[in-house]
């Protein structure tokens, strides 16, 4: 990993809010910022390194190549709409790239990246119109008028990503041109869509969560009020009827009345994040309770074992309760990112470990699944069952967004790569929080943590772990405090049999937080032991598509069976579950039988199928997030049981 | 049922080809026409009656109301494109209605319907341009130019339905204005897309099958040659790349090279029908073999137990092999109609009973499922598992084509109701065929059959049956022949234990055709006994979505469990399969248990699910084709096994 320069570190330390993506003015937990937590290696350190060396560059290069960045130049040079490239929301991907760059600069002080970000800002700035409007798709002669297609135009959605980029920049660098652009655009949004303005919402939620954060950053409560208005307006049918139905963009039921997330999954989760933020800032317990209820029901009935959300390709949407087909799981990478956003906000608001559990599940099994090992190709959708090997996308071709389940270098709709990039760059912010009593660790990674308790005492911790390869989490106190404070360590819900050791005594701990309260002295160690071993996991019987099948999880990591390990298509593979999965030399192995089946006959018969099984043999499983890194394969997370 | 007037009957009898929808110039079997076979009651007689009294009227009324017929008036009056209503292919539904009317007039001689059809023709005729072009969507000032959007424009598709309407008219009435319109349009198509014309195909196959039949009817081999050209051109990438991929419109692989049906199901099946017709007319055994192979593989791996085809809502398309989710079965009604078309063509070409089996399965479980009992609402998609009761579509509202799984009166894309109407009106043509040796019965319905054997001898048969309520099929010879000939009776593949009785002796018969060869005298009876009783049916283990579940079939009819019979949501219902399903007083009953399950918890657990089962109780099943006729319900064809 790159090392931050002294200058950059100092810039970050003096930036407002210390590099925190989310800074609620109230809530149970206080987030720590990128200057307070540094991931120093391990699983996520490697992903951050991949992001730093490859993913951000890859995204920038592709957006230059396909002309999405060039759209801004074309606007300045009066070449629009003729020379416009990409879909109506392509501006937003440039902003997401800029957000990723800003967090990454904050994290590492990379000066080359700093220059590239500044250059991008310089190309975008002149496109902003005098009244603050900024979009390359609308409003010019030959283009549709501004805000004439709120259902599909994505103008406010694009602002949302602009605002988030500006917040990232402001909180890692301070107010600069990017922040000023965002402020002018936000003022324009408030004037246009305020209480006396257009009674309308955007077809794609996103501006809500971004307006709240821009308001938190700038201190301008108008932005919060505008976010509140957008949240309250939604669900009242101001958007036109479309074939997918108004639930597609959550305009079917008011946010505070809804029982479950529904419609387009990314839209639903961005909205939930924004609604949670609005609820926190306005002390609206009813609204926060609505988001909590919707999220809980969604997790109970509409979420894949990976934490993936979205069961329909059509409409990229949630399905009905328990409708979770592995072979048609949409589980868009962006929905994984959005679930992390929602989970983190609910964690900060409530302090409940179940929200950090969701963040962990989605990070390890959706966000980490998207990028290829080389960082140059991505999953847009994340299927749990690949029936055909498919073909590898050409490295120089744009792929349809969901045509293949093999990673592709870039997509016609390419929201996911930049979403992964901004998440990885800001990942340190998900590791730990503080409250009046002490420090909480939520996500386990080798990390250095340095924060100040409310009474002004500075504490420093070092986390050492190979998690999730194993479950040993060692927390060394580098700098203690004179008074007792509480170190809380999250115990995931799957971790039956966990224990914590502190001051020489060991205790079993259960799901939630293991709390150790002491006047920690420098050199003290707290050790959490999580039972990271492979286990069979079964689905509720109402998840019909997983009936008679079993999955394997190892710690937070979902495993899968890949044809490259089986030496055959996974279509007829079944596993024996008499014994737990075997762990040997770092590999997880399960006993698999295969069968020779007729594939030319009518497939419905009088007798129950009882295909002759081969001798079982031990076959290694692959972490789901690493599948399809060894060429085309077939794969399944849910394995039929003999 | 209406009785044909003497005039109409005589018009039909003297019409060319005697009311046959498909008249191959060669093939193993010769189709009988509507003047040779009359369905006289029973299951399909009731559907024909519903069609005659309600469905055709309903479709005409709706198309007047939504302006799709009015588009032709608007064209004449110069009000296009401003006053155009409906999607780009709405002309085709007017033509399908006209085809249904033509067959219905041929069947019953209904003089009111005759006047309505003539009136429709009079409104369409003046829209045809001097060179034969006819379409309300393209070519006028303010509209896109002709043939500028072959991917989505559906111009040739619309001609296809025009040609099929004209063939129906010609073969039940003789050449009239409708036929002349079609001939001018077909000439225009040949000039525009012939060997020296545009090297292109239509994004939606249909014109191929229609051109062959128009060629058979008129004797003009140019139409056949044009169909052959369209079939050979497809699969060579002349259509533009789209997000669904070129397999969506079968432009990915040449027809004779493909291994399985793929992409949009209706497109694939219309193309297969056309390719089969071209193969037969050009004695192209390779092409016929290709269709046979693709259809066989599709039946083995990509077809629902209902005969339904199309596993994806997105793209209305086939899925991968064995990807057949009951809860997302698209199984479009039109794909059922198209499967019937393809199956019937392959039956005529090969004489193999398996093709008639497909026709039967799709008729009883897809085509018959679409219309509501009152004939005023239709399924567009045919799900095999309804998870939410949904809401009944308003009787005066147009529904999105696939938004709900409850029948709706009309759709924004409303291809299905008219497709059902034309199929029901011409259903007599599927009942029986003849060859040099005698007569074959393929579909069982009470019917009167009168045909002439090649040596000029007239034979008359009367079929008496309550099939599929029971399996007794009695064939009375009303008029025999001096020389021996063969009566062949199809024995469906499911009918294990069937027997045939003739001349006092009874014999077991197996799947295929039971053949009785005699110099049948008037008054002789042949009795076929099919074992119509309820049976458990299991899916191949690779149909993952049906794993651990069982269906019930009774004769050709797939059954289902509906919440209105269970008295509860079907979500937790499981059945015991120790004994065969019970049949009592005409009902099929199965032992069902239900369970109380937590629906607020994370649904993936360590232990195998073993929900406590209630006492089992006998619950009646409903024929799948009759489900959702008693208000909103949840339903499943595949029932989990205890």
Task: Give a nutshell description of this structure.
2 copies of one chain form a homodimer. The first copy, chain A, is of the alpha+beta class.
List the helices and strands and how they pair.
Two copies of one chain form a homodimer.
Chain A: H1 6-14, E1 30-31, E2 37-39, H2 42-65, H3 70-76, H4 90-108, H5 111-124, H6 155-172, H7 177-193, H8 207-218, H9 221-233, H10 265-281, H11 285-301, H12 333-350, H13 353-367, E3 385-386, E4 398-399, E5 410-411, H14 415-425, E6 432-435, E7 438-441, E8 447-452, E9 458-465, E10 472-479, E11 485-491, E12 498-502, E13 505-509, E14 512-518, E15 525-529, E16 534-539, E17 549-554, E18 557-562, H15 563-566, E19 574-575, E20 582-584, E21 587-593, E22 604-605, E23 617-620, E24 622-623, E25 635-636, E26 639-640
Domain Non-reducing end beta-L-arabinofuranosidase-like GH127 C-terminal (chains A, B): 537-640
Region (Disordered) (chains A, B): 1-24
Protein name (chains A, B): Glycoside hydrolase family 127 protein
Structure in words:
- The structure is a homodimer.
- Chain A has 3 domains: about 5-380 and about 425-430, Alpha/alpha barrel (Glycosyltransferase), CATH 1.50.10; about 430-530, Sandwich (Immunoglobulin-like), CATH 2.60.40; about 535-640, no CATH class.
- The first copy, chain A, has 15 helices and 26 strands.
- In chain A, the strands form 5 sheets. In chain A, strands 2-8-9-10-15-12-13 form a 7-stranded antiparallel β-sheet. In chain A, strands 3, 16, 17, 18, 24, 25 and 26 form a 7-stranded antiparallel β-sheet that branches.
- In chain A, a hairpin with a 2-residue loop joins β6 (about 430-435) and β7 (about 440).
- In chain A, α8 (about 205-220) runs antiparallel to α9 (about 220-235).
- The longest helix of chain A has 24 residues, at about 40-65.
- Chain A is globular and about 75 Å long.
- Mean pLDDT of chain A is about 95; it is low at about 1-15.
- At the A-B interface, α11, β16, β17 and β22 of A face α11, β16, β17 and β22 of B.
- Chains A, B: One of its GO terms (molecular function) is hydrolase activity.
- Chains A, B: It comes from Georgenia yuyongxinii.
- Chains A, B: Keywords: Hydrolase.
- Chains A, B: This is Glycoside hydrolase family 127 protein.
């Amino acid at each position: 990993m790159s090392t931050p320069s002294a200058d950059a570190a100092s810039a970050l330390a003096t930036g407002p809010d210390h590099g925190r993506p989310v800074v609620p003015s109230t809530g149970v937990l206080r987030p720590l910022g990128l200057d307070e937590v540094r991931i120093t290696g391990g699983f996520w350190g490697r992903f951050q390194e991949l992001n730093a060396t490859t993913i951000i560059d890859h995204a920038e290069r592709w957006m230059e190549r396909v002309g999405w960045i060039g759209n801004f130049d074309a606007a300045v040079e009066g070449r629009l709409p003729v020379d416009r490239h990409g879909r109506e929301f392509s501006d937003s991907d440039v902003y997401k790239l800029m957000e990723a760059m800003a967090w990454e600069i904050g994290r590492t002080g990379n000066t080359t990246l700093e220059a590239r970000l500044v250059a991008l800002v310089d190309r975008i700035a002149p496109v902003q119109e005098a009244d603050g409007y900024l979009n390359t798709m609308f409003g010019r002669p030959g283009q549709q008028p501004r805000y004439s297609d709120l259902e599909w135009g994505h103008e406010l959605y694009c602002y949302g990503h602009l605002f988030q980029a500006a917040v990232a920049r402001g909180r890692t660098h301070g107010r600069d041109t990017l922040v000023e652009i965002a402020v002018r655009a936000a003022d324009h949004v408030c004037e246009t869509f305020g209480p006396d303005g257009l009674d309308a919402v955007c077809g794609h939620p996103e501006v809500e969560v971004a307006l709240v954060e821009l308001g938190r950053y700038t201190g301008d409560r108008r932005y919060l009020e505008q976010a509140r208005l957008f949240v309250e307006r939604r669900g009242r049918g101001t958007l036109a009827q479309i074939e997918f139905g108004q639930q597609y963009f959550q305009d079917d039921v008011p946010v505070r009345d809804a029982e479950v997330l529904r419609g387009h999954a990314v839209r639903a989760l961005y909205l939930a994040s924004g609604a949670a933020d609005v609820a926190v800032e306005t002390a609206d317990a009813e609204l926060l309770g609505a988001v909590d209820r919707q999220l809980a029901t969604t997790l109970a009935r509409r979420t894949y074992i990976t934490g993936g959300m979205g069961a329909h390709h059509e409409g990229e949407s949630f399905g009905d309760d328990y409708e979770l087909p592995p072979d048609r799981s949409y589980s868009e990478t962006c929905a994984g990112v959005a679930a992390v956003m929602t989970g983190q906000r609910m964690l900060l608001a409530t302090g409940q470990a179940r929200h950090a559990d969701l963040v962990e599940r989605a990070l390890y099994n959706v966000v980490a699944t998207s990028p290829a090992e080389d960082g140059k190709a991505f999953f847009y959708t994340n299927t749990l069952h690949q029936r055909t090997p498919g073909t590898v996308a050409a490295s120089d071709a744009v792929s349809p967004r969901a045509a293949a389940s093999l990673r592709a270098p870039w997509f016609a709709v390419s929201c996911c790569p930049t979403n992964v990039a901004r998440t990885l760059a800001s990942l340190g912010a998900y590791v730990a929080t503080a409250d009046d009593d002490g420090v909480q660790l939520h996500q386990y990674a080798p990390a250095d943590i340095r924060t100040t308790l409310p009474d002004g005492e500075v504490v420093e911790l070092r986390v050492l772990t190979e998690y999730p390869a194993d479950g040993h989490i060692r927390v060394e106190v580098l700098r203690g405090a004179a008074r007792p404070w509480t170190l809380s360590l999250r115990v995931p819900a799957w971790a039956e049999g966990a224990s914590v050791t502190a001051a020489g005594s060991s205790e079993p701990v259960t799901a939630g937080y293991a709390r150790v309260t002491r006047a920690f002295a420098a050199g003290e160690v707290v050790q959490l032991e999580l039972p990271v071993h492979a286990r069979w996991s079964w689905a509720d019987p109402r998840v019909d598509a997983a009936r008679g099948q079993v999955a394997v999880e190892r710690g937070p990591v979902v495993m899968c069976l890949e044809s490259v390990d089986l030496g055959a298509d996974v279509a007829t593979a079944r596993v024996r579950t008499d014994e737990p999965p075997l762990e040997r030399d770092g590999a997880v192995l399960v006993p698999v039988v295969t069968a020779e089946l007729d594939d030319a006959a009518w497939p419905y018969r009088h007798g129950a199928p009882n295909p002759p099984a081969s001798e079982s043999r031990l076959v290694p499983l692959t972490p789901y997030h690493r599948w399809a890194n060894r060429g085309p394969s077939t794969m399944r997370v849910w394995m039929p049981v003999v």
